[in-house]
Amino acid sequence: MAHSRFSYNRRKYHQFSDFKYRIRLFLVGLAVVSVNMSCLQDFPETDATETVTLLYLLNSTTATAPDSINDLGLWFKADALSASSGAAISSWTDSSGYDRHALNANGSSQPTYQTNVLNGRPALYFDGNDDFLQSPYDIEYKTVTYLAVARFTKNWNPGWGAFGHRMYIMSQFGDFPENASGLFFNWAEVAGAGKSRISLRVTVEGIGNVQAGTDSNQNEWYLLSGQYDGDYVRLYSSGTLIDQSGLNAGDIRNASIGFDIARHLATTGGSDTHRFGGYIAEIILYTRSLSDSERRGVECYLGLKYNLSAGDGCE
After folding, report:
1. Which residues, 6 or more positions from 303, have their beta carbon under 8 angstroms from its beta carbon?
2. What DSSP letter does each residue of 152-207 carry, written as one string?
3. What separation in angstroms does the CA of 173 have from each of 74, 81, 85, 188, 253?
4. Which positions ≥6 away from 4 have C-beta within 8 Å?
């Protein structure tokens, strides 16, 4: 009877292993699967490890290359550049395929290329005073998705007062009415003196500025995603929704300016007031709101690339 029991268990184990294998093939082949989890009842002697493995397979997300998704508008990644550590960067290659490169001909205000910054990969360092790059192309969009891997290092300055200091990772944001969208960290302003936040801000026609944001930490790497879908602004960190605006339906204002990296372009002066200080490894912009599955795929791409959390189940 002992031998019979062992043989029975072994058959059930192989049945379950084959079941997991077929589930994986189904996920890879179709990317969508609906499984009645009650089927686990057919395997009452399955151990916890096998159950967790199956659940992981059912909830996993395959990393998606940014340029495999339609409506990619801008894509700046430090590893698209080849430079020595500390070299000034006058042009950041746009990897979207549209050659909308980000430029700065002024050597004194160019960011520097830094090697081996995050997971063995490079990043650009912006000094927080006058460094910036600009992609001078006006891109039209009604909804938007930003993704970025960044860390701000700029210190709090009590002289900023209650209004605080915004540090734009990337923006199409000038003086009103040249406002469209921007992803940024900021000291104080709405968080209180000496506190920092992350926000996505968009200007909706007929409504004005709408944003979502949450508290942040200086000197911490963030994998950020921000979207406006025509109704709500949503901000994600490490693949998790952390804030959502109220309902504000409409299109993003079509500003007739380019995109700035590490600053907000003030078209009538004062352009040094919103400088980013810190490291940017990668920025991606889509000219529409991605679906949840699309966004999760790119988050997983960034998370695996930089060894940052992007939520559960990335592969």
Report:
1. 63, 223, 238, 239, 309, 310, 311, 314
2. E-PPP-GGGTTT-EEEEEEEEE-STTSEEEEEEEEESTTS-TT-EEEEEEEEETTT
3. 16, 26, 31, 20, 10
4. none
pLDDT single digits (tens) 153-205: 999 988 887 778 899 999 998 877 789 999 999 987 665 667 899 999 999 99
pLDDT higher than threshold 90 for residue 229: yes
Q: DSSP character for 300?
A: H
- pLDDT average, residue stretch 36-53: 45
Task: Identify the CA nearest to 40 among candidates 4, 11, 12, 9.
Answer: 12
239: left (phi over 0), alpha (psi -120 to 50) or beta: left
Report the candidate in 59, 68, 65 with the shortest Cα–Cα distance to residue 314: 59
Q: Which of 163, 119, 41, 50 is nearest to 302 (CA)?
A: 119
Give CA–CA dist 249/310, Å, rounded: 29
| pLDDT for residue 175 | 78
Q: Which two tokens stand for residue 251?
A: 């299109």
**Which H or E run contains 143?**
none
pLDDT exceeds cutoff 80 at 267: no
CATH 2.60.120.200 is right for the domain spanning 66-306: yes
DSSP single-letter state for residue 290: P
Tell me: cis bond preceding 66? Omega within 30 of 0 counts: no
H/E element, 7 = helix 2-30
Burial of 199 (0-12, 13-18, 19+ CB in 10 A): buried
CATH 2.60.120.200 spans which residues of the chain? 66-306
DSSP codes of every residue in 87-118: -B-SEE-BTTSS---EE---GGG--EEEEEEE
pTM: 0.81
